[in-house]
UniProtKB/TrEMBL annotation:
Keywords: Cell membrane, Membrane, Transmembrane, Transmembrane helix. It holds the Pfam family DUF202. One of its GO terms (cellular component) is plasma membrane. Residues 20-87 form the DUF202 domain. It is a multi-pass membrane protein. It is found in: Cell membrane. This is DUF202 domain-containing protein.
Length: 126
């Protein structure tokens, strides 16, 4: 079957992919943006709602880490969307992504650190 879809320069040279794949890629990008916004909101919540921790400045450091992680996820999500769009237009395999693993490792590390700081506080010991 011949592909008569027009060539385009949006997100790389190549042929326009099936619109369903383009829309699915866009929905995934929007999910990454929602994740980034949730991390930003969590950072703000930590800064304003978490009690002072046993280490001075630790609460602010945790909040800053969450907000920075949100920025990294937003930028990485855009780069991923762009790379996938380009690969689909060029009929190439989709590039692998390490973003979910990086996000999981960062959030796990931050959660363990925050839990240790909370348990070290005077009012939260068993």
């Amino acid at each position: 079957m011949r592909d008569d879809r027009p060539r385009t320069n949006d997100a790389g040279n190549g042929r326009e992919p099936d619109y369903r794949f383009t829309l699915a890629n866009e929905r995934t990008f929007l999910a990454w943006l929602r994740t980034a916004l949730a991390l930003d909101a969590a950072g703000l919540a930590v800064a304003h709602l978490l009690p002072e921790l046993v280490v001075p400045g630790a609460r602010e450091a945790v909040a800053l880490a969450l907000v920075l992680l949100g920025a990294v996820v937003a930028v990485s999500g855009y780069r991923r969307w762009r790379a996938y769009q380009r690969a689909m237009r060029r009929d190439e395999p989709l590039p692998p992504t390490r973003l979910p693993g990086i996000l999981m490792a960062a959030l796990t590390g931050l959660a363990v650190l925050t839990l240790a700081l909370l348990l070290a506080g005077p009012g939260l010991r068993p």
